[in-house]
Q: What sequence folds into this?
């Protein structure tokens, strides 16, 4: 154990991940006191990032020598792990129209109809699958005694926006129209997603909010969602730009892959010279560091100068202004129709402020919001609450908060 600790320390000291978070963690049941927390924070983040970094690095090598694409290799690595039979769940793969789904139904008898949770996985619209979020979906279904439907939507860059959004919307509508087959209460349908899946859940929720021929959604659950692509220089982007699992540059890269199938104009998007100033000023009432509480700026924030853009650049990304892609930009008239909401944010996450800004918009428009903030959390932590024998307490607390919210509905 000591040797492992030393090896990890030597590796961590070569990184640029240095944080001071006054929490206590466990590593192989060893209690780590507060003065060692900065080191352990680096260790935990490194361990959570390492398999993904390996896949990205090796995938790039394979792509360079012409064996396969980096994206294909990463997807292969992510999808290799499979879980055995779950004694508490019925699990079945189906198709909702042309969209693959996996349904998790508790075996324990229920005296009444259950909640139905449409789950959209994260992965930057480029990665993720029914398999990558299998453990999380099982946990939600078991612990909340809900029917969970995980949606295997089409991925970018092969399938550009709005493919993923359309798949999630169509799968949800199909579920609503056939609700009687699954023992689900039509008044208790929830959309849920993490990261890019949180983006998709928010977009689907907005689309369904104005409809009249389908059951109303009971709630939306947004787990560290990415909700806008106008400003990549908000306080959380500045503070956490090199924090695993989602770096600032990678966040912009993913949304460009989703939109256009490539990362052209990545530098312009990062510096903020991709949207005309007049449009950015119009959105500042919703997307602005001024709307982020001051306590979230104490770790550092430098105001960013507004930059204009060329017509050529804007033409390639103008759909960033569409709410189906960036739900934070929806009009107030639509926002006020949204269902009760749960938003989870993490302190060490570039997407933290997207969640905070959406929370404010919802509350300003009279929507009831339950907010859970993980002071020691980082992007992707819920999927890593029990990862390869290591304990991620923040992930377990986050998962418990989601389950408790579901139980309250």
A:
């Amino acid at each position: 154990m000591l040797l492992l600790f030393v090896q990890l320390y030597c590796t961590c000291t070569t990184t640029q991940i240095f944080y001071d978070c006054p929490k206590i963690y466990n590593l192989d049941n060893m209690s780590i006191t507060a003065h060692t927390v900065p080191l352990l924070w680096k260790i935990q983040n490194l361990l959570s990032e390492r398999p993904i970094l390996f896949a990205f690095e090796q995938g790039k090598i394979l792509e360079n020598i012409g064996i396969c694409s980096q994206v294909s290799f990463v997807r292969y690595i992510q999808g290799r792990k499979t879980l055995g039979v779950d004694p508490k769940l019925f699990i079945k793969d189906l198709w909702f129209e042309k969209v693959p789904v996996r349904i998790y139904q508790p075996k324990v008898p229920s005296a009444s109809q259950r909640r139905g949770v449409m789950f959209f996985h994260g992965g930057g619209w480029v990665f993720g699958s029914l398999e990558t979020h299998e453990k999380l979906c099982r946990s939600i279904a078991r612990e909340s005694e809900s029917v969970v439907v995980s949606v295997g939507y089409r991925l970018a860059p092969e399938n550009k926006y709005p493919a993923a959004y359309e798949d999630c919307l169509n799968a949800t509508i199909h579920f609503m129209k056939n609700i009687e087959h699954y023992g689900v209460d039509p008044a208790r349908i929830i959309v849920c997603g993490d990261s890019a899946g949180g983006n998709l859940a928010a977009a689907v929720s907005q689309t369904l909010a104005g409809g009249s021929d389908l059951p109303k959604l009971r709630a939306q659950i947004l787990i560290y969602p990415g909700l806008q692509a106008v400003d990549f220089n908000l306080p959380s982007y500045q503070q956490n730009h090199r924090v695993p699992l989602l770096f600032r540059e990678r966040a912009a890269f993913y949304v460009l892959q989703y939109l256009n199938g490539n990362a052209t104009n990545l530098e312009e998007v990062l510096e903020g010279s991709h949207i005309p100033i007049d449009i950015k000023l119009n959105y500042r009432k919703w997307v602005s560091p001024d709307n982020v509480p001051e306590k979230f700026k104490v770790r550092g924030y430098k105001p960013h100068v507004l930059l204009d853009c060329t017509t050529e650049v804007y033409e390639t990304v103008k759909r960033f202004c569409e709410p189906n892609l960036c739900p934070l930009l929806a009009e107030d008239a639509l926002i006020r129709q949204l269902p009760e909401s749960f938003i989870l944010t993490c302190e060490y996450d570039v997407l933290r402020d997207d969640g905070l800004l959406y929370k404010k918009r919802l509350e300003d428009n009279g929507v009831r919001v339950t907010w859970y903030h993980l002071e020691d959390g980082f992007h992707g932590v819920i999927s890593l609450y029990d990862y390869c024998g290591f304990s991620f307490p923040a992930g377990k607390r986050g998962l418990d908060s989601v389950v408790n919210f579901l139980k309250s509905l």
Summary: The chain has two domains: 2-76, 88-229+320-407. The longest helix spans residues 37-64. The first strand starts at residue 26 and ends at 27. The CA atoms of residues 274 and 317 lie 7 Å apart.
